[in-house]
Amino acid sequence: MQADKFAGCTILNKMASHADSRRAYKRLLASGDYFAERTYYSEESGGFVVVHRGHMTGGLDSEMETARFYADRGVWVRLLDETGRGPFADAHHGGPRGDGLRWDYKTAQASGSPKSQVQSGISSGKKPSGNILIRFEEQMVNMDLLNRGVRAAFLHDQKRVKQGGQPLVRHLVLLFRTLTGYFEESRTPEEFFNEGLFRGPERND
Description:
The chain is α/β, with parallel strands linked by helices. It is built from five helices and ten strands; from the N terminus they run E-E-H-E-E-H-E-E-E-H-E-H-E-E-H. The N terminus is likely disordered.
């Protein structure tokens, strides 16, 4: 069975207990690399959020809200060191319920057009990650405009790749605010063009 190495704590993939989660959480904080006062631990799911001391504090509150959404679902979220040249991503989703990927967090403001905000979120993505997560604070999002923005950004990215560039997005996740929390929807570019557009929470009822 595959083992995941998580900052010095090795767990068996898909078999971590709450004790494993608590042990990994404490091990990270004990390393001294993470802020002791900027953490979140879900007693219900065993997921958590820790913030590296080198993580930029601008926009941290917004990133923490996104991170807590995943921690409540059992994901071990590390907000990463952003000093120097790496790691070119905001967060790592680890643990047995995480995908093991590094993600670039974005927040769409309620006052902006969903089309332009999606395009901006993708175009400003950190290249080596290719995994972009955009959280929408507004409850009612114009999905037609949003999908136009996704389509335009994906097509532009495909053009970049054909010209020898590195893809900006390999996986796009959108979080939509609802009355009860957030609704998550994801697409790769291939899924978007071959299997369908983003539908949003209202159209998935």
